[in-house]
Every structure is written in C-alpha cells, then in structure tokens.
Design brief:
Layout lengths: L2 E5 L7 H13 L3 E7 H10 L1 H7 L4 E6 L14 H11 L1 H8 L15 E5 L3 H9 L4 E5 L3 H8 L1 H7 L42 H11 L7 E3 L3 H11 L6 E3 L3 H7 L27 H7 L6 E5 L8 H14 L3 E4 L14 H10 E4 L4 H6 L3 E6 L3 H10 L3 E3 L6 H11 L3 E3 L6 H12 L3 H20 L5 H25 L2
Parallel strand pairs: 1-2, 1-4, 2-3, 4-5, 5-6, 6-7, 8-9, 8-11, 9-10, 11-12, 12-13
Length: about 500
C-alpha cells in the first residue's frame, strides 16, 4: 500500500500548498504522513481549523520534529538559511525515525513509507530519504518561471549579471535566462540575488545547490498549469526527468472526483483548506458585502514582507487618493522593528474609507464580487489565487521569486501592472486608477485576467492537463510502492 510522507519548509508560503497536495493524495486512497516542525505546527493549530480537520481523516496523520531553535527565536523567513542549517544539523535523526522507526514497527500499524514528497528548498528531505533508499519527489512551491531563473544563476554569474555590478542599470535586459532574453531585466531577477557581493555569497550557493537537486528527484511536482507556463516548462524538462504540473491546487482540490468509499474525506471548499500562521479575520467578508461589484482594492503583502513606516504612509496616501475603498492586511509584524506605530490619520481615515485586518481569508476575499484589484507582493500562492479569481494585480514584490513573478504578471501574462521598487503615493494612486477605472488599460487587464482564469480552471477540471497529471502522479507513486514491496519479497 502506498504511504507518502510530505515534508515542507516550515513557512506560510510553503505549508498550505503541501497541505492541499496531501489532501488530494489522501482522496486518492494513499496513506499520508505530514511532517511539520513543532513550532510551526503549534502556530498552525492555533490559527487554522484545517489542521484539525485533516488530522481526523482515516489515513492522514501529522508528525512533528524539533527544528533545533529556541522557543523565543522569531524564525523570520528572511533568515531561512539559519533555519535550514538548524534543521540539517539537529533534526536529521528525528526525520530518519519517521521514515523508518528504529524498532521496525509503525505505531499506527501503517505500511512503511514508500515515497517522500519533499520541499525542493529543503535538502534535508531529499538527502536522508536517499540515504535510506526511499524514493523522493520534489515539490517546488514557487512558479516555474522563477525556478528556471534560479536554475540559471550559474549562467548569470558567467554573463556578469550576478553579482550586480556597482551602479548597474537595473532596467538592462539580461541574457542568461533562456527564453526570457527579450523581457527579463536585471531588476526582475530573483530578489535574493540583489544582495550578493561575490560568487561565494551563502545565499547564492544555497540557490545553486537547490537548483542542482532538481534532477535528483524521481519527479518534480509544480503548483502551476501547462497553459500558464508552457515555454518555461519546456526548458525545465531538459533537467528534470518527469514534471507533474498539478495546479492550481486549490481548484484541483475542489474538482477532484468523489471520495473513495473507504476514505472519510468530505468535499472541501477553498476556504476549508486554508492554512495560516495567523488567525483569519472573517469580519472583512461582511464588509465586502456592503460594496458594489469590482469596487474594492484588496491589499496584502503576504507573510514575509516588511515595510518602513514611511512606505506604509505612502501606500496609505496613494490608496486614499485613488478614491477607492480598500481592504488592507497589515500583519502585526509587518512594519520594521522599532517603527510599528501606525500613523494616527491612517487609523482614523481607515474607518471611513477602508477596512484593516491582521490577516484575511484570501481565497474567499479574491473570489468576492466586490474585489476589483489586488495590490500584492507577488508571492506565487497569491499570484495563482488571483489568476484563478480573475482579479487584475498591482505588483509590489519584496524578495525571492516575487520579482520574477511580477514581471510575468505585467509583461507576459498581462493580467496586471508591475510597480516593483516604487511606492510613492502618486505612483500607488496612479496604478490603482489605471487598473480600477474604466479606461482602456483597465478593460484590457480585466479581459486578460478573465481569460487566464478560464484557462487555468479548465486545466484543473476532469480531462484537463492538471487533473490528468495528478492522476499520473498518483499512478507513479503507487508504482514506487509496488516496486518497493516486490524488492522486499525478492530479498
């Protein structure tokens, strides 16, 4: 019997897509062990009912391992290298025990783990499984276009685009990412490359290692659709033996068949499989109900972005100046340390023009008819959710894959505008007006967004490419299980 262990990097942008894939595999009748760090699991338990619901399924269980960091450590994602090193050095044996209990007996009487789906950014998941001869597939939670850009870093070093030369022209086209030579600028390269001062930079080394690992997995799983990233996927196929595009996962989860009679799995809505490190404030949905169709600007910079108080004020004035009502997610830790106090006028005017929440049920917000625009940090989950909902975007990327995503949104898919590296109030106001008002640009963006939404939804329907690829993925996992048992019986 196939038993899949899923191991994501313990962060907001990584765990939710892993949970969606895990539930899909559970619906397909597989045993699922989902591994979280103890700290991340406690936070998700405190804020997300999804965790409790999934834990109650017949063949679905959570297991936790320590991450080796102190209780008071903030575990900021921008310090991900330190988190990864702690996991690599202090969690190895705990992970090994989950893959194969030392006494040889599973505490629940489950079959042995026959396949690992590991986070492509978490080398530990791959390395230990390989040591124990357990087949590994890798899930990358970012876009295919950003994964290809990461993979191209050695070429970019060779062409001199990385590290950035002193006083580099940020709008100069780069030639080291195959297929993107005509539109990818230096400022559109993955944000983590901006701070590298030499080729020995630890972040560059990590990114190159993670990219090299792509070819080591039995397959690469991606939360995207062929219709969305086909040209880039053709490049990735030159280095990965098998690629399964199964996105958008939230749409596939809504569409994927009926439950097996032996599985206690209810049909899930997008909302019920939302997972967050912060408690969602659902009162904002009622606030949205009071506004006309496509009248509200939804603003969220995700789970990692940190802004200065000055930038916050500029966004604020730009939004107010646009004349549009807005729903704005402002996390408790979003403003730079020591600069947390919000301007008094922001709080006052928000009651008149906007709605401020610490965290929102984003998939439901984007699907709400009153939302007409998404001012976003361009994280891949947010980008894909906006595409599914057919909501045009204003992109203000912070770091990592977000710079690449925002360029594709504005220049390739043409479902939004790219505002990277700018946040002056006049710029914000102008961008909102351009997207929300009834001019030619706004109409074209809405048309393109609706067409793209239709395409990716079709891909996740029965007979669509993502739906079919998921079935192939399940068959592949089952075949690995059969090979393992056949191998054991032949010994």
């Amino acid at each position: 019997m196939a038993h899949v262990l899923l191991f994501p990097f313990p962060a907001q942008g990584h765990v939710p897509p892993f949970l969606k894939l895990a539930e899909l595999l559970s619906r397909a009748g597989l045993f699922i062990t989902f591994v979280n760090t103890e700290h991340a699991h406690r936070r998700f338990l405190a804020s997300s009912p999804t965790i409790d619901r999934l834990a109650g399924l017949q063949r679905f269980r959570f297991r936790t391992i320590p991450d080796g960091l102190g209780e008071e450590d903030p575990r900021l994602f921008v310090h991900f290298l330190r988190i990864l090193e702690s996991l690599r050095t202090r969690s190895r044996e705990h992970y090994r025990e989950l893959l194969a209990p030392e006494d040889g007996h599973d505490p629940d009487g489950w079959p042995p783990v026959t396949c690992v789906v590991g986070d492509g950014m978490l080398s530990l998941a791959l390395e230990v499984a390989e040591e124990m001869d357990v087949p590994v597939m890798l899930l990358r939670t970012s876009s295919a276009c950003s994964v290809w850009a990461y993979y191209s870093i050695p070429k970019l070093v060779e062409t001199g685009d990385i590290p950035f030369p002193e006083k580099a022209d940020m709008d100069e086209l780069v030639q080291g990412v195959a297929g993107m030579e005509s539109f990818l600028r230096r400022r559109d390269l993955p944000g983590l490359t901006r701070h590298a001062k030499s080729v020995a930079d630890p972040t560059l080394k990590f990114l190159m290692t993670a990219s090299e690992n792509l070819a080591r997995g039995r397959a690469l799983i991606m939360n995207t659709a062929e219709c969305l990233e086909s040209p880039v996927l053709s490049h990735l196929s030159s280095i990965c033996r098998v690629i399964y595009t199964v996105g958008p996962l939230q749409t596939l989860l809504q569409n994927f068949g009926s439950c097996r009679p032996d599985q206690d799995v209810s049909n899930s809505t997008a909302a019920s499989n939302s997972a967050s490190l912060w408690q969602e404030d659902r009162s904002c949905l009622k606030w949205l109900d009071s506004h006309p169709n496509k009248s509200v600007v939804y603003v969220s910079f995700g789970s990692v972005t940190v802004v200065s108080r000055e930038a916050l004020v500029e966004f604020w004035h730009g939004l107010v100046g646009s004349g549009r009502p807005f729903l704005w997610v402002i996390r408790p830790d979003m403003v730079e340390a020591g600069d947390e106090t919000a301007p008094a006028e922001l709080e006052t005017a928000a009651r008149e023009r906007g709605c401020l929440v610490a965290w929102a049920p984003q998939e439901e917000v984007l699907a709400h008819p009153s939302v007409g625009c998404f001012l976003t940090h361009s994280g891949w989950n947010s980008t894909l959710e906006s595409i599914v909902a057919g909501v045009p975007m204003i992109c203000w990327p912070f770091f990592a894959d977000q710079q690449v995503n925002s360029r594709f949104v504005g220049e390739v898919w043409k479902v939004g505008v790219d505002m990277k590296d700018l946040c002056g109030r006049s710029v914000v106001e102008g961008m909102v007006r351009k997207v929300m008002d009834g001019g030619e640009v706004g109409e074209e963006l809405r048309k393109s967004a609706a067409e793209m939404s239709h395409m990716v939804r079709i891909a996740a329907e029965e007979g669509g490419s993502s739906y079919t690829n998921f079935q192939k993925l399940v068959d592949h996992i089952k075949s690995l299980s059969s090979q393992k048992y056949q191998g054991s019986s032949n010994k």
